[in-house]
Amino acid sequence: MSEQPQHGSQHGSQHGPVGGVRIERVSAGHRSGPVLHELSLDVRPGEFLTVLGPSGSGKTTLARVIAGLHRPSTGRVLIDGRDVTSVPPERRGVGLVPQDGALFPHLSVAGNIGYAIRGLPARRAGADPRVRELLDLVGLDGFGDRMPDQLSGGQQQRVALARSLAARPRVVLLDEPFNALDARLREEVRGQLRTALRAAGVTAVLITHDQAEALALSDRIAVLRDGVLMQVDTPVALHERPVDAWTARFVGDAVLLRGVRRAGSVDDVETVLGRITPKDPWRSGRPADARADARADARADARADVIVVLRPEQLRLTAPCSGAGVDGVVTAVEYAGETTRVTVAVSADVAIGERGAEPTLVTARVPSDRPWGVGEQVSVEVSGPGHVVPAQ
Amino acid sequence: MVVLAATLVGAAAVAPIVQIVLRAGSQGWDRTAAIVLRPRTLDLAINTLTLTATVCAISLVLGVAVAYASTRIALPAPRLWIVLACLPLAVPSFVAAFAWASTWPRAVGFWPLVVVLTVTCVPLVTVPTIGAFAVADETLADVARTLGRSRAHAFVRVLLPQVLPAAGAGTLLVALYTIADFGSPALMRHQTLTTGVYALFRSGIDRSAAAAMSLPLAALALSLVIAERRLRARGGRRPAAARRRPPHQLSGPGTALVAAALSLLALAGVGAPPAALVRRSLIADRYPSTASDLAGAAATSLALAAVAASVTVLLALPISHLVARYRSRWLAVVESATVIGYAMPGVVIALALVALSLAVLPFIYQTLTLLIIAYVVLALPLSVGPSRAAFRAVPVSMDEVSRTLGRGPVPTWLRVRLRGALPGIMAGWLLVVADVLKELPATLMLRPIGVETLATELWGKTTLGAYGAAAPIGILLVAVGVVPALILARGIRTPGTADRSADR
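Above: the input entities. Below: the structure tokens describing the complete assembly.
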């Protein structure tokens, strides 16, 4: 995973953003076994970075390592260039917004926020200017005297954020903070959180398993699988050019086609949906030596198995035998408002030598401008280039 | 450090038992065996066992019936029946026995004692069984009905097995209470192992004999507490998703009948004893209780109880904190050690502490310090239990947030964990206070000369035959006991009521 050089963020405070986090070859685990394997990651000052991974991928452990709540077995954690690996959480300058908010139930909203401010008694927190400023920041002006159980889930999360900012942290960790909220509220609260974090000018690390959330909020996304970083990239790059089939499937809806590059055809890949042009010069799985390698393979008449990643929007369905596409049969239809997901069974093609094999299922997302019926004959056509990744 | 503190407390809790075994063996095991096996001891053991078995059997049946009626049958004011089911716990058995004996002085002995003990002990079965009914899966009974079984068959074969572990564990608590009880068998003139040990101790001739006789008592208590823990662990396996039906709607007369039966039982448990005491206190006596006697005894009781409860809570903190937070075999052993002292009858602990203090710290014999140590040993789990639950209810994420907010481990523990657990810890403190206030045998055996508590004052007046003078003390003791009974009733989850743990 190559990292680009650090640059300033567009949403820092006037003193310039702080809170660069560098994780160097960190391994960590529990009694049940290792969780993170020699993981390295740079979070740039002022950046909103999301660690995205399925449950069990180690993302919460990673957050706890950054916060100082979990001691890595090897490796270092640096915050703004300072090695904090053995610094306890209370001296790290890392704020935490946990899943359930974890507001102290015996303290008022103001008392919760004021908890981080030394020498401020809980009963006077409501009058403290810093507390009022933070309440204002998260849009909860006038809520200082409420008790946590008098707040909605979304309000509790905003208080948790304000509280995490009260200690003026360099980095704020958001550990699945939207999990307990229902879908509609989630969208609203995450917008508010993003705005407040931007205004505070701190670095934010969001932990989530929800790819839609990650794509919507992040400057960059780090995809974590089984304790290993698969890819660190901008949402667009991640969506358009995932490193492998697993990442492609995890980050969004993907159509994965087995493909073969045959002797003589340097660029195009044969798939069950016909010949597809790669987005990038073809890679054999070793990123650096793409084209030369490919030519060498081609001369040797070697078959190179690859996987072509398409997004469902790239598939067009037309009347059968129209010539442009490949014929198939509709096997499932899922109506989703403006679009419809149509799954089509396409027979394996001679071109990839799988005659008689099971038909391939591909899913297209098409405008809901006409009804589709199961059993209907259609022709599937690919528009635009495909992203080619190595076959395992 | 904390683990060491917890371990020391656990070790201190079992020290008296170790001491009593050593003491019994100090004159040779042959002699000890001779005392344990002599006819007098065997008679007392049989008396104790028949009494315990009878009280347990009746309590089990009554307890399950009351739990079922108060949770699964639609009655007006559903919460009221839960509170009524708990309230008999407010009446110490020796106060109930005294109320009985002062009303019908000739009608004492085995069966009256069974009635008194059953009425005061039934809540020990009812309360956990109500909890088990609250999580029992009733769809299973529905399925049994659709498979062609009668309602009675479905109840016995499907619903009852789901609550039996809890009811069984409750019954074992009844057994523990019954074998340990000293005051009520003494007042009802039924000799048991506890009265036997006390008599040997009082005679003062051969305290090794008393220690030897308390060995079977200790062994019995120990096996009961082990059985109770096993059974409770089995009751812990709950169906993944308990589906419940609304309570059964009986016909008008049926509902009235059930309500009347429940009321009658509650009346016998909490209404009759105070009423009898009030009646008796109006009859003049040769040795009247003066207001200053009462106030003095009450003040001594309260002061002792408050000090003992505070010490107990402090000593319970390291154990309850660790057990709530970490899982380890060693901590489980330490926690179980605290239960042993609680399980032991007061006479056994008192006897052990007399021996222990004379052997190790002779200067604390006949002091309030020794008495307070006895209270702590007897009441430690009453504080460990609620404190542990309270600590466990504070999510770990709150500690972590506090740390990231710049507070070190100690301030975090004080301001977040201890503060969050405080209501539960205070509830445990109150339970210990109430337990100490009604403690009789250990107080009788260990109090320094001239010190009288409410319980010993009542005991002293009854041994003088001054029932009229003792009655007001009994009323005071009942009033004090209402507090823990209400705490218990508040904490019970019932079908149809929301989880109250979220209540502030």
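Note for the figure: Residues 1-14, 283-291, 350-355 of chain A have pLDDT under 50 and may be disordered.
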